[in-house]
Amino acid sequence: MAPTPKGRATYHHGDLAAALVQTTLEIIDEVGVRGFSVAEAARRTCVSPGAPYRHFADRDALLAAAALEVSRRLRAIYLDSVADVGSAQERLATVAGTFVRAAARYRGGLDILFAPGLRATHPELRDSSREFVDLLLPSAFEVVAPGEAAVTAVALLDALHALARGYVAQLLEGKFGDPDDVVEEVAIRATRAARALVAGYGVPSGPVGEEGRDR
Amino acid sequence: MAPTPKGRATYHHGDLAAALVQTTLEIIDEVGVRGFSVAEAARRTCVSPGAPYRHFADRDALLAAAALEVSRRLRAIYLDSVADVGSAQERLATVAGTFVRAAARYRGGLDILFAPGLRATHPELRDSSREFVDLLLPSAFEVVAPGEAAVTAVALLDALHALARGYVAQLLEGKFGDPDDVVEEVAIRATRAARALVAGYGVPSGPVGEEGRDR
DNA sequence: ATTCAATGTATGAGCCTCTCACATCACTCA
DNA sequence: TGAGTGATGTGAGAGGCTCATACATTGAAT
User: Fold this and answer.
1) Dihedral in degrees, nearest 10, Cα atoms B139, B145, B146, B152
2) Residues 131..160 of B with a Cβ closer than 8 Å to A: which?
3) Least CB-CB distance to A173: which of B119, B173, B200?
4) Burial, B89: exposed, middle or buried (Cβ in 10 Å; 0-12, 13-18, 19+)?
5) A169 vs B114, B172, B193: nearest CB
6) pLDDT tens-place string over residues B138-188
């Protein structure tokens, strides 16, 4: 009964919760969500199999925390990508492409962010998506016809969200070939589709200016 | 010693494979993919825990078979829903709404049909989606600008697919509230978004005729 | 009738999740 | 300064699951 922590200097880890989240993301990148196990995460963090349960109620809670971290990183990427985009139309269209490119980089990360079971049971994941909506809403209002109610702007964002997620899903499951090879092409296609969507929600009579379809 | 099959008349089941697929769908409807286990499926089918492995290589293979069954049922629904839709534009837009409504009915079924891990490893699932593409391609060709290459028609279908899947994901994870309560509304919104998408891909100069946005 | 391939059973190894009693340590407050 | 205390980690283990292997049963073909 000499619980000498091996592979570590101190008995206490310091910040096990954060370390576990990080390790979880690494594991998922390697073997996917299905291959992930709390036991393996504990092993890699040089901690006993029971330790993670001090910080996370169950396997799903750890996965949700990791997903939240992914969401945080995504927002940083998003803010970066739209920094110098002038028109609201193009800003909305750009997000779709950015999202696809981010998906290629974070792969497994998005797998958990969008895992059906997780999102249904962990509301904080949906809340994190809602923050994106807040960031984009002003652009959506600019685009939508002046007479239309606010709901239309929100509906447009939902549609864009749906579109982007759908593309990401298809990309990650390899529908278009090896994800790494086709990211850029898919991103461009997503952007174009988003442009079409945005154009469809804006009034043709308004001072839109951009043609809204090809390239 | 005495392998007397209990709960069954004969030692052999008759059509265990099909029964397992059916049971799998039921279990998933009740407790979701995450709650599903081969052992439970065997139990409900009154068969030993090892029996399923005579018919399916592993857990995922059984899930994939169940997903394929879902895909088959979906196609039936689809064919039904577009039977009396006249214009190609509306046919394409209708599919999106149909898909959303079907999602509400088959819930868990769609969870496996679109489970990231499964689709990545079981190509037959992607093939089954491709059949839908074949069914819709003619309509897509009608809609797309005459000068555009065939790729554009395919791209439009990919975009529609992405859009519909994205809406379904959001619906099933409860983003809009209890799925049962909001199906119809979401279906309408998906249809509208699809209409916008279709309009964006078609030439404004063509003999399209339909306005392509609000209701 | 006999044999064979297919299908089901029994058993078990190995892994995982999650729990519980106990060990250890950082921190607070007298 | 020096207990006391709560948070964090350990070890052991119960219960469940996946999947492999050896054996039993049975319908069909020879």
Assistant:
1) -70
2) 155, 158-159
3) B119
4) buried
5) B114
6) 999 999 977 777 889 999 999 999 999 999 999 998 899 999 999 999 999
